[in-house]
Design goal:
single chain; about 375 residues; alpha/beta; Aspartate Aminotransferase, domain 1; Aspartate Aminotransferase, domain 2; 2 domains; 7-stranded mixed β-sheet; 4-stranded antiparallel β-sheet; binds pyridoxal-5'-phosphate
């Protein structure tokens, strides 16, 4: 047998985000391609982690996380999401929400299974599904509100379908799924006996008074829903790698075993820091966060509009898709490279979020940036011919 890569590795494409980041670095540009928030982590979270390190919290935690963090997450799930999860048996703290989703896929998907994704989708979701040998199926969402046709959802379901992936608020569209939409998805999941995987990492970034709806909080969906979230975004700690999944015990047990196998546990002292945040930060923290990002959203949307790149104003999360069809080129990549050359501002070509080359008139910009950098990006956009 010759040396070769696994067949699985063929399927995993290098994220376009990374490609644009490299291009951006080459020209010393402003990177609005990547979702890296450079704001400070909340004080109790930092102090909590520092104290844990000083106190010698250096060992493995239980495979599903520190008890104090699981308990804090259970209380937060109850109060913010309307979900009842037993911290002893139904919550798995993992290496970020990325790790939590990977473990859920390992536990629940077989090669050949299909999972429905709403397009435009977050590339890691598809790559993770494919990494375990399963495949994506697609339901298109349409601007301005990124709505979907329920018939299209029905048509996407085949005998191989094992789950529906929801991301609310969504990356890259910013869509916040409404209760009615969740009910349509829930009804399809019940009728065809499907899992709902829901990535709610942006759950605190919901603008204009909209409400974040967790599918597991809807009647009759808790037993088939795997709720995934984490703290990278709301505490600006993307590098700490702390997230979690919540699911009924029969699923959580195996998700936890997979977490043990792949990661053993999430970083112990960082879990302790996060527990201080989840347990201690009150509503005003999340309100301030929302106000701050709402301001950034306005700034970037205004600049895009003025530059003749009409934004689809996001309902949530911290990305904006802009219509860049006036820029020269035939693909989103051409247009993103043109924009980078002309202004030094990097975004992600729209094709990265579609399975079939659609999205060629879109670029995604991330506005989770310090104000000075975001303002500089806006000034540069204004120079676009
Ligand atoms: C939709 C979505 N899920 C998950 C993540 C990653 O989260 P974590 O750092 O918790 O793995 C991102 C980061 O960009 C994201 O956009």
């Amino acid at each position: 047998m010759a040396l070769s890569l696994s067949r699985r590795s063929d399927r995993i494409t290098q994220a376009e985000i990374r490609v644009m980041t490299i291009e951006c670095e080459k020209v010393g540009g402003i990177n609005l391609a990547q979702g890296v928030c450079d704001t400070q982590a909340p004080l109790p979270v930092r102090r909590g982690a520092q104290a844990a390190i000083d106190a010698g919290v250096n060992s493995y935690t239980r495979f599903d996380g520190l008890a104090e963090l699981r308990r804090a997450i259970a209380a937060k799930l109850r109060d913010y999401n309307g979900i009842n999860a037993d911290p002893e048996t139904e919550i798995t703290v993992s290496a970020g929400s990325t790790g939590a989703f990977y473990c859920a896929c390992l536990a629940l998907l077989d090669p050949g299974d299909e999972v429905i994704l709403f397009e435009p989708y977050y590339g890691y979701h598809l790559n993770t599904i494919e990494a375990v040998g399963a495949a994506g199926a697609y339901v298109r969402t349409h601007p301005p509100d990124w709505t979907f046709d329920p018939h299209e959802l029905q048509r996407a379901i085949t005998p191989r379908t094992k789950g529906i992936m929801v991301n609310t608020p969504a990356n890259p569209s910013g869509k916040v799924f409404t209760r009615e939409e969740m009910e349509i998805i829930g009804e399809a999941a019940r009728r065809h006996d499907l899992f709902i995987f829901t990535d709610e990492i942006y759950e605190y970034f919901v603008y204009d008074g909209r409400q974040h709806i967790s599918p597991a909080s809807l009647p009759g969906l808790a037993d088939r829903t795997i709720t995934i979230s984490g703290f990278s975004k709301s505490y600006s700690i993307t590098g700490w790698r702390v997230g979690y999944s919540a699911a009924e015990q029969r699923w959580a047990e195996v998700i936890g075993q997979m977490n043990d196998l792949v990661y053993v546990c999430a970083p112990a002292p960082l879990q302790a820091g996060v527990a201080r945040g989840v347990g201690g930060l009150d509503r005003s923290y999340y309100e301030r966060l929302l106000a701050e990002y709402g301001g950034k959203r306005e700034r970037i949307c205004r600049a895009l509009e003025a530059a003749g790149l009409p934004p689809s104003v996001p309902q949530g999360a911290y990305y904006v898709l802009a219509d860049v069809s006036r820029l020269p080129g035939t693909t989103g990549k051409d247009r993103a490279m043109f924009l980078l050359r002309e202004t030094g501002v990097a975004g992600v070509p729209g094709e990265a979020f579609y399975h079939d080359g659609a999205g060629d008139s879109l670029i995604r910009f991330c506005f989770a940036k310090a104000d000075a950098e975001l303002d500089e990006a806006c000034r540069r956009l204004a120079r676009l011919p």
